[in-house]
Amino acid sequence: MAPYLASLLLFGGIYAMLALGLNLQWGHTGLVNLGFVAFFALGAYSAALLTLNGVPLLVAAVIAVVIAGLVAYPLGRLTLRLQDDYLAIVTFGFAEVVRILLLNTRWVGGADGLTGIPQLFGPLAADVRPFIQLGAVLMVVALVLVLARRLTESPYGRVLRAIRDSAEAARSLGKETEGYKVVALVLGSALAGLAGAIYAHYIGYVSPDQFDPSLTFLIFTGIVIGGSSHWGAAVGTLVFIAAMEATRFLGDVGLPISQSDFAQLRLLVIGLLLIVLMQRKREGLWPYRHRERVRVTRDAAA
Amino acid sequence: MFTQATNRIALLACAALAFAGCAGAAPPVGSPGGGAATGDTIKIGALLPLTGDGANYGPGMQAAIQIAVDEVNAAGGVLGKQLQLVTEDDATNPDQGVRGAHKLIDVNKVNAIVGTWASSVTLAVTPLTIPANIIEINVSGSPQITELQDNGTVFRANATDAALAKVVADQFYRDGIRTVTVISNNTAGTIGLADSFKTSFTAAGGQVLETITYAEGQPSYRSEVNKALATKPDLFLVSCYTPDGTLIFKEAFEAGATGKWAAPAFCLNNQLVEGAGTEAVEGAIAFDLVAVKDSPAYQRLNEAYKAKTGEEAFDNVYAVHVYDAVHLLALAMQKAGSTDGQAVGAQMIEVSKAAGDKVSSFSEGAKLLRDGGDVDYDGASGAIDFDQAGDMAPYVGIFVFKAGKPELTQTFAGQ
Amino acid sequence: MQAAADGVVVGAMVGLAALGLTLVWAVERFPNIAQGDTLTLAAYLTFGLSVGAQLPIVPAAVLAVGGTTLAVQAAYQTAFRPLRTSPRVTLLVASIGVALVIRAIVSLVWGTRLQSYDLPVRRAISLGLFHVSLVDIVILVTVLGLVGAVYWILYRSRAGIEMRAVADVPDLARVTGIDTRRVLRFTWLLSGFVTAVAGVLLGAKIGLTPLLGWNLLLAAFAATVLGSVGHPLGAIAGGFVLGLAMELSTVFISPTFKEAIAFVILAAVLLFRPRGLLAGR
Predict the structure, then answer these.
(1) If residue B411 lies in a helix (H) or strand (E), which one and from where to where?
(2) Phi-psi region for residue B180, left (φ > 0), alpha (ψ -120 to 50) or beta?
(3) Where is mean pLDDT largest: A260-269, A271-280, B153-162, C73-82?
(4) What are the tens digits of pLDDT across the range B65-102?
(5) Helix, strand, coil shares of chain A as percentages rounded to 5?
(6) Are A197 and A64 in contact (CB under 8 A)?
(7) What is the rounded distance in angstroms from the CA atom of residue C152 to the CA atom of residue C73?
(8) Res C32 pLDDT > 90
(9) Which terminal CB of chain B, N or C, has fewer other CB atoms within 10 Å?
(10) What are phi and psi of B42, to 5 degrees?
(11) pLDDT at residue A282 in the model
(12) Contact criterion met (CB < 8 Å) for A249 and B19
């Protein structure tokens, strides 16, 4: 049971990192990036290709982060003039283009993907490794959480939220909104790149199948469940993935239906869960509210 | 705010854990790593594409695995213990496959995992099964699976793309076919078949005019079909799965295609005929490992499979493969006298080898083994022989569709 | 020439899938992920009624359209209506939930293997330079008929004019006394109906798997945006542009890139017309 929970939390931690990145874009700046998974893929593939060619993991991770961020920059420059819905679909398309390119490029493995990627803390014994890996990932998540909070509590973060709430009002205050949006896009995507680098060296294998749009939806769902505070986004994603996996155990208690029907039933339960959760907790479990109000009053007092 | 949030999380985490914990409170079985089988059952994990792109095949595979497990149990089980089947859905997605495999290995403590279908799922899951020292039997096509450093625990209950393609390429050449155009689905298994076919067919002296790759899940493949038709080859080879293959055969027929068409039987089967129409597949050639429709194992499986699913086992060759996989696994465990991955792996090769007495069911085989004999399991998918890399020699059958029915015309013993 | 004809057919199919999407998107302001699975549901209902319950194909299709329209309305009433004051992404996530529920039900009832309606497959009809099959012609005619009908409803009928008012300026519409609830109900009815018809036809063309509609969703999104959200003509036009681009591109490069081409075209168009082809008309 313990190694299982460790692996589940590891997935949760990696997804939480993705959620923090996406939340920076959506929750704090209002950008609906439906192609977020592309940056996760870019991070995973570039880090994997580097370590497979003998580059140390730490260096590879840094390069992966830079690559993911760099790709986001021109995409942001080109597309941020678009309205919400249009931006959502263009980014969605961008992710598909990335996936199709990976699928058709033989030197990155094509449909077969890349195997034999070295494990995080590979030299450690197999029975302790998952726990050390988990500890490391949770530490990175905590660090990112702290950094993200500092960022959004800074004056810069307030501009981002002003943009989210009304781009025109922000512009009228003399803020060049586009530049701020691009930075949010780049930072969030870089974070996805980091998550990708860690993921590749945890799971040891990357292929285009792992980066389909459903992962972006999964992260959005986590954020919406948790609410758009950093804490909420990270934990909401973790809770969602845990709930999804927990439904697997319903099959073990011996339901009077076939196992293939159970797999469908599991989808049904997850679907219903989403519908009900959205109605019960409109703004998620941990909405971005409380701290904000304190800030505003303090600002007003000053 | 912080303490409030922490409380809420603690609560949720407890709830989630309690949920997972209580439902998953299976009695702890075996030592960590799943080596020995203590307790009164041997657990077999089935990790199958029950949803997602592979769902056309997954449920049938589940039915066939269940049939095989029931047969083994009816014959008294393995080493005096009943087999217990635990099934997980991999959703045809490597991430979900890995999470399912973690549960099977760490919580259910299975002694083997059977059934991974997509090459990407197999390649993502084997890094877990190899250190856990349990047997992994897949039906994927990718050549990378052969090269895994697996201590002899990973087996492919299916022909490799290369082996299947070689037999077929040579036969086509012997039949006087000199030029072929390949239309291939761009997944690891199907593109592997297309590539291997090109290599073998070129080596045999033929020519592949063009390889046209397409993405799965398109609403139409007319442009692909038209592009292929324009090359006017002696034969069209479609490396497909049934859902996309059906559309291709239908659209080719509508476009007025004539000439010879061929496809692997995991794609071209009665299901495809139902969707594309009898005329569209008249004379088309299907090839795969299901070479022995008159073998006792196939007939036994087919009867039970029909009763369970209402379909012919031929329509899901992967179901036939996993049925055999369970039998070989059970015989190998019986012979090894344990469930240790490496020990069973060595015996998987032994019980498939032609050296022993031929058996076609677990009850015959187990009896022979108990009497100290040597067995060679000849299954529903042919006279299976595993090599050291865990791949199978291809016993290929070639079928021709006449009036909508597949007729076996040739079989090839593998080398 | 044949590639162009193929492009028109593919475009019509994508346009069909996009037509119902664009209506709801304009009024509710979110891309409905359950659109794809609604198409799937309509196709499977037709299959169930014709092959399962042995009804002739036409009454089966009519009943399936009715059933799907009702199912969409039920989904609206239970899953989406309670969220009318929520952020739009909440609706998006709820629509993922609805999509999963529909897909699970379809898989539970009809299984996950490939199914087909019991229709004869015939050689295509040659029209000199190119050939088309009978189903293609039915699809083309239906697309034109449906888009004409939807256009008429939106621009000539009172319900449609109210719908457009709500889509354009929701607050103003409410102030001027338009019953928003009724408009929403009507929008989901119309969208459900159009989507159901599309689903029945796409089932005939593509064959039935639980992923039938989901696989078309991305292209439908692209077509909707390309043709400007809320424009029925735009959805069809967007479908045609994408369909033609995809099929014509296969003359020059490998077909495996054709989806990628669709998105490059989409991005290129939006750079010059940020709100799609028909915005502002």
Answers:
(1) strand B405-412
(2) beta
(3) C73-82
(4) 999 999 999 999 999 999 999 999 999 999 999 999 99
(5) 75, 0, 20
(6) yes
(7) 22
(8) yes
(9) C
(10) -105, 125
(11) 65
(12) yes
* B356: pLDDT strictly greater than 90: no
Query: Would you call C100 and A100 a contact, using CB atoms and an 8 Å cutoff?
Result: no
- Sequence ranges of the domains in chain A: 2-210
Per-residue CA distances from A154 to A302, B148, C175, C213 (Å): 16, 50, 40, 45
Q: How confident is the model at residue C198 (pLDDT cuts 50, 70, 90)?
A: very high
In chain B the domains, ranked by start, together with CATH numbers, are 41-159+295-377 (3.40.50.2300), 161-288+396-412 (3.40.50.2300)
Q: Given pLDDT bands bounded at 50, 70 and 90, which one contains residue A174?
A: low
Domain boundaries, chain C: 2-116+124-272
**Strand pairing class (C125-127; B357-359):** unpaired
Strand partners, B212: B183
8 Å CB contact of C108 and A96? no
State both tokens at B169. Answer: 């390429």
CA-nearest of A13, A73, A65 to A191 is A65
Give pLDDT, residue C171.
79
- Chain C: residues touching B (Cβ < 8 Å): 2-3, 6, 9-10, 13-14, 107, 111-116, 120-124, 126, 131, 133, 202, 205-207, 209-211, 215-216, 219, 246-247, 250-251, 254-256, 258-259
Biggest CA–CA distance in chain B, Å, is: 79
Q: Give the tokens for residue C233.
A: 């003509």
Q: How far is CA A222 from CA A27, A36, A285, B98, in A?
A: 12, 14, 10, 20
C-chain CB neighbours of B220 within 8 Å are 6, 9-10, 13, 205-206
Residue A298 has pLDDT above 60, yes or no: no
* Contact assignment for C263 to A86 by CB distance below 8 Å: no
Q: Do A213 and C218 touch (CB under 8 A)?
A: yes
CATH class of C2-116+124-272: mainly alpha
CA distance C276 to chain A (A): 8
- The yes-or-no verdict on residue A90 having pLDDT over 70 is yes
Buried b (16+ CB within 10 A) or exposed e, A112-129: bbbbebbbbbeeeeeeeb
